[in-house]
Amino acid sequence: MTTPTTLLWLRQDLRLADNPALHAIEGTVIPVYILDETPGVRPMGGASLWWLDKSLKALEAELEARGSRLILRRGEAGKVLDELVRETGAEAVHWNRLYDAGAIARDKAIKAKLTGGGVRCLSCNSALLNEPWEVETGSGGPYKVFTPYWRAASARVGSFVLHRAPAELAAPAKWPKSERLADWGLHPSGPDWSGGFDWTPGEAGAREALHDFLDGAVDHYATDRDRPDRAGTSRLSPHLHFGEIGPRQVWRAAQDAAARGVSHSQVEKFLAELGWREFNHHLIFHNPDLPTKAWKPQFDQLDWRKDEPGFEAWSKGLTGYPIVDAGMRELWATGFMHNRVRMIAASFLIKDLMIDWRRGEAWFWDTLVDADVAQNAGNWQWVAGSGADASPFFRIFNPIVQGQRFDPDGAYVRRWVPELAKLPDSVIHAPWTAVSEVLGRADVVLGRDYPEPIVDHGMARARALEAYAALKAA
């Protein structure tokens, strides 16, 4: 008798440990990754493709060490899976669920066609602590406010078993053909803008990042997480997005750290950030248009400005506001931006420049290695005031005050805006306030070495509040 053959369709679950779709397979397994071109499924941005390239290389090595392979195909996922079923005689296809509208529609159509042809399909949850439909309010609906959501969601986690990566995987007698990863051209060329990407994609890199965080920065997480001048965050977001580590693994490791003596308050603050990730998935599942439409519909009537020079200055880190520019330059150089600075930069685009949040969301989608449809849309709408449990629109970050508060010594600005490095702390977040002698000693000529502010924050704040008042009155 031959053993049954199952296609393991990998997507944002690029790991072997605690992978439910893999663990459920008995018999021969053929791991498959499809660079999907299904209409309606949002293509990855450039920085995400850079990460994917390295993550797939790492996964290939892990599979080969277990006597297996990774089959790579490019095209519409449904058509590719049909071809692979015919080529391999696979009796089943397993995958782990995704929660945005495009992925859900694709997966439903694929499941219907495969099951109609006699192929068993199994979808599992590898990405979340709780499924979006499992956490409900007392009236049976979805949550709209984070704190009660997380109170209910965290209480549901309970006990669970983490499955180790299998020591070996049963291979087919004959492997289907695979495309070459190098031929996909995921790594940028002409030019290669990724020289500053200091990351270790893959399952081993994810484990190391979590271990390092729980052995160090977690001790001061509640305060240091807001300091871009310090290494105070976990940097797990891209690993979680690509599923190189799962939230249950993070939850268990954090709880174990607390049991070893790490402050419970620090661990709980860290896990609440994992909860925010869960909340955004909860939102996008129940609000499929979250990436394109305001969660509060009236905000789609806001009088956004068409300001191409302003957008270009923002995207290049040339706004004249050092904390904003430092963040945008960090993003371009590393594929990442500190979370506090993401909020400051987003607020500047939306409220100082009055540019539609969707333009910023699209820029982050292309330039962040952790670009995630739920997190990106949910967080941009949070800053815009149009989302669930959002910061009110009238809460407008002052980029000078934010820089002084969260980068008090100017270390973050000096790293990413080196032309201002010689300015004293007292003016580094507002260089236009420095007297000419101070600028001269720092070798800074505004308008030549560093731009004057492209907008006056006081004027911009008043303009934004006026637009918001008009929106409320409409």
Structural features, described:
- The model has no long low-confidence stretch (mean pLDDT 97).
- The chain folds into three domains: 122 residues, HUPs (Rossmann fold), CATH 3.40.50.620; 119 residues, Serine Threonine Protein Phosphatase 5, Tetratricopeptide repeat (Alpha Horseshoe), CATH 1.25.40.80; 177 residues, Orthogonal Bundle (DNA Cyclobutane Dipyrimidine Photolyase, subunit A, domain 3), CATH 1.10.579.
- It is α/β, with parallel strands linked by helices.
- It is 45% helix and 6% strand.
- It is globular and about 80 Å long.
- The chain has a five-stranded parallel beta sheet with strand order 3-2-1-4-5.
- Strand 4, helix 4 and strand 5 form a beta-alpha-beta unit.
List the helices and strands and how they pair.
Blueprint: E1 5-10, H1 20-23, E2 28-36, H2 46-64, E3 71-75, H3 77-88, E4 92-96, H4 101-116, E5 120-124, H5 146-156, H6 203-214, H7 221-224, H8 237-241, H9 247-259, H10 264-286, H11 308-316, H12 322-334, H13 339-352, H14 357-367, H15 373-384, H16 399-406, H17 411-416, H18 436-441, H19 457-473
Parallel strand pairs: 1-2, 1-4, 2-3, 4-5
